[in-house]
Amino acid sequence: MKPALITLLSVVTSLSVMAGGEGWSADFAAAQKEAADSKKDLLIDFTGSDWCGWCIKLSEEVFSQQAFKDGVKDKFVLVELDYPKDKTKLSEAALKQNEELGKKYGVEGYPTILLCDAGGKPYAATGYKAGGPEAYVKHLDELRAKKNLADEAMKAAMTSEGVPKAKALVAMLKEMALTDTMVENFHGDVIAQIKAADPDDETGFNKGVILKEKLGNFQKELSFFAEGDDFPGAMALVDKTIKEGGFEKPEVQQMMATRGVIFAQMKKFDEALQAVDEAKAFDPDSDLAVELDEFKDQLKAAKEANSADKEPPPKAE
Q1: How far apart are CA 162 and CA 165, in angstroms?
Q2: Domains of the chain, start order
């Protein structure tokens, strides 16, 4: 066998190995073809097999169980995309494939379970669920029904015009509960139709898109300062962004809380505690407000520990 052919064969074999066990494929392109040929959907598991506790629980409690395999065999082609700490577990081809797909789908945490059509377009997302294989299969069936609902919503929208059409399409996207990246990368046609049907943005959809883009740019800039330990620069960015406005209440409160984090990094604990109090007072009934109480306790403990470190050692008699 020629060396080039041996290399090609090794790549194909490494991609096709079923890392998730029997019935799972690690080769995305092959899984797409199988799904198209068999008229099934794709069930994609983005996992960290050697470090993610919830991923391991989901695999042990659900995916490895025969009741799960029997429950999905006629509906899905199963795909496992692994992101292990031990990179030697995967070939270079598999690592490259998974990295590209992780970015394409905008995966934000593990495990992320996506339900997609045979072409790879996602229509629902989920993660770990307690209850065992039977309950999980039922959960997937409920999510799978969203595909039909989305198709029906799309047909209904096509019979409408203007703002009613835009509202129907926006509701369809919200029902899918996908990440922004998934919507942008796989449902761009729907976004274009919403903008065309609602040029004055009565639905507020376009405003939301602009807000998310602005927030993403802010987070990138903040990460730049954090990576360089430039805390004054980070603080200046947060203060400037809050002052400029244009964000919704939850985002503003998060930025106000970020001021507390930055002050803590600078070991300015009194200022950090004040920033946390201001953030909580901004919206005391939010979900974040509860977390801020816990953060405040951590800040107090850090302040005490820092003060103890600064105390001079006792003098020898």
Answers
A1: 6
A2: 16-141 (3.40.30.10), 149-202 (no CATH), 208-305 (1.25.40.10)
